[in-house]
């Protein structure tokens, strides 16, 4: 009778234990890929990277204007305010375009009509790099790529700018 | 370009394009509170300002670490040391060495300096709103950038 009291045999006990441990190991292995697979769902919907640049959309004309704003940047434990700049205008299709001012040659700031000899162009003071109004580099000048473009959107009539991405006409 | 590993690597690739050195000059002391605090403010603003200027013109300038000197130091001796810096830069070769400072005492011996001295009107940091300071720095950066361009 004593055998019947032992509900679980040694063999069964080991089976259960190993199944349990194996299950945990499998789960452990699966967690990261699953987390990665559904990652976009977990990200907060609010585009946190967009910043108000303090310019009303209605003030944007076909003449490029310079806007300066600051964003908080956290770099490890070091938090700092970073100044950012863009040249904003409305193109022929009535779309708002915000160019990064950073010259694609060596990184100086370009300015719209920065040189009297080259009206209707962006001009880089460092090595006379030039860009057309649509941001494309003028061939024969030092820069080899068009100006980068800020992602942009309108919220409550204000212009918000986000990440920088390469010019699409490149 | 700044004096950092990343920028120095870029400089190595583009030496022929970067022909101007900018050296900020800042007096330093630890003594009577008022004067000392003023120097400390100056130093902070000059550093901020130099970084902004570097951002604006990074493709053609190399910003060096700030040259500091004891407030009471004999300027002619400091000028000699500065000329050693300049001689060192010219080995690279850089064509243009520009010193920027809020300290007007350099004006008197500017002729003894082998680089160009640019004096900046002081930005009062005391009691000012951070936003106002930012605007003033930005303003002065644009104006100084114009001045630097005139040397090219």
Automatic annotation (TrEMBL), chain A:
Segments traversing the membrane: 12-31
Q: Which GO terms describe its molecular function?
A: 2 iron, 2 sulfur cluster binding; metal ion binding; monooxygenase activity; oxidoreductase activity, acting on paired donors, with incorporation or reduction of molecular oxygen
User: Is-annotated flag, keyword Transferase?
Assistant: no
Q: Which CDD domains match?
A: Rieske
Q: Coiled-coil ranges per the record?
A: none
Residues forming the Rieske domain are 88-161
Keyword terms, alphabetized: 2Fe-2S, Disulfide bond, Electron transport, Iron, Iron-sulfur, Membrane, Metal-binding, Oxidoreductase, Transmembrane, Transmembrane helix, Transport
Could you describe the subunit structure of this protein? The main subunits of the menaquinol:cytochrome c complex are a Rieske-type iron-sulfur protein (QcrA), a cytochrome b (QcrB) and a cytochrome c (QcrC).
Role noted for this protein: Component of the menaquinol:cytochrome c reductase complex. The Rieske protein is a high potential 2Fe-2S protein.
| Family (UniProt) | Belongs to the Rieske iron-sulfur protein family.
What protein am I looking at?
Answer: Menaquinol:cytochrome c reductase iron-sulfur subunit
TrEMBL record, chain B:
Name a Pfam family for this protein: DUF2487
InterPro entries given in the database record: DUF2487 (IPR019615)
Return the protein name: DUF2487 domain-containing protein
